[in-house]
Design brief:
The chain is α+β, with helices and mostly antiparallel strands. It has helices spanning about 25-35, 50-55, 80-90, 120-125, 145-165, 185-200, 210, 215-225, 225-235, 240-260, 265-270, 290-295; strands at about 10-15, 35-45, 95-100, 110-115, 130, 135. β1, α1 (about 25-35) and β2 form a beta-alpha-beta unit. α5 (about 145-165) packs across α8 and α5 packs across α10 (about 240-260).
């Protein structure tokens, strides 16, 4: 470990309101799990909700907005629900997940406990290659075949996402933008993983998109660990016909991409964007003009709120 902490050493790890301030909860759990012994206990004290008070205090700090696994977090902040914690902990190999003071979650904090199964998820994946017919997976026959399969898999995922998100598949950048940047949420993300599992007979966890956040990254992972399954679906052609097809597809893809970028009329085909209305709410003011009058006179507009729980 970079911090000089030995792996497989500790019986218990305690973290208080720190996990929510990390980029990826799944990766953070992997790091902590690495230093725990088998059946070592992880105890977390974490937020149970996002609140106005927390936004006004910690929201000014960079760590509050550091998270990138948006689909796991509660809307509007870094907090994670009890169900979210239960799902991601089980996915990362923690068993007997418990919430000993669940009745007090409404107070804004929660305690989560779980035991490590003793297996590092990233190591376990490398030790469990896809098998078919009792044989361990083998490398692709040729580099051309690998390129062909990778391109076919990326196009397949882009096409699936384009239908789910009602966008053009050509607008999806394989490596430049994360899934969340295209609007992939918990529902569409789960649907994508379920489709991959059913198509290639895999058993990927739904949190895999937290680790591999772009089509390029996910493709590399799938072809590294499940090459035979992917090749079986996309690589039915012979190597010679595959090379010809792959070359044609690459050339065609380049021409199509070039013409798409140069073709300004495509934007017009999507139709104009209409702003159908705009509104605002102003303190003790019916409209922005009244608000300006209050501000110009120095009127104190601070008042008690009735929106948040416990407000008086």
């Amino acid at each position: 470990m970079e911090q000089g902490i030995r792996i497989d050493t500790y019986d218990i790890a305690i973290a208080t309101n720190v996990f929510h301030a990390t980029k990826e909860i799944a990766q953070s759990l992997q790091q902590v799990k690495a230093v725990l012994k088998k059946d070592g206990m992880l105890i977390l004290n974490e937020l149970s909700e996002n609140s106005l008070f927390l936004h006004l205090t910690f929201g000014l700090l960079e760590g509050w907005w550091l998270f990138q696994d948006d689909t796991l977090r509660l809307s509007g902040g870094p907090a994670i629900s009890a169900n979210g914690w239960k799902e991601v902990l089980k996915q990362e190999g923690f068993k007997q997940v418990q919430f000993p003071v669940a009745e007090d979650h409404e107070k804004g904090q929660q305690i989560i406990m779980g035991l490590s199964d003793g297996q590092l998820r990233q190591v376990a994946m490398l030790k469990q290659p896809f098998k078919q017919g009792g044989e361990q997976k083998q490398p692709a026959v040729t580099t051309v075949k690998n390129d062909h399969i990778a391109r076919a898999l990326k196009d397949w995922m882009a096409e699936h996402l384009s239908h789910a998100l009602s966008t053009d598949a050509q607008n999806i950048n394989f490596g430049g933008a994360a899934f969340r940047d295209y609007g992939v949420d918990s529902i569409s993300g789960i649907n994508l993983i379920q489709t991959i599992n059913s198509t290639f007979s895999l058993e990927l966890g739904t949190t895999i998109l937290f680790d591999f956040t772009t089509i390029d990254q996910l493709t590399d992972f799938l072809l590294t660990h499940y090459n035979e399954a992917i090749t079986t679906s996309f690589g039915q052609e012979t190597p010679s016909s595959m090379e010809e097809t792959s070359s044609e597809q690459v050339v065609g893809a380049k021409e199509e991409k070039r013409s798409y970028k140069e073709r300004g009329s495509d934007v017009e085909k999507k139709g104009p964007i209409a702003i159908v209305g705009i509104s605002g709410r102003f303190a003790n003011s019916e409209n922005v003009h009244e608000l300006w009058e209050h501000l110009s006179k120095g009127t104190n507009l601070v008042d008690h709120t009735t929106r948040w729980r416990g407000a008086k």
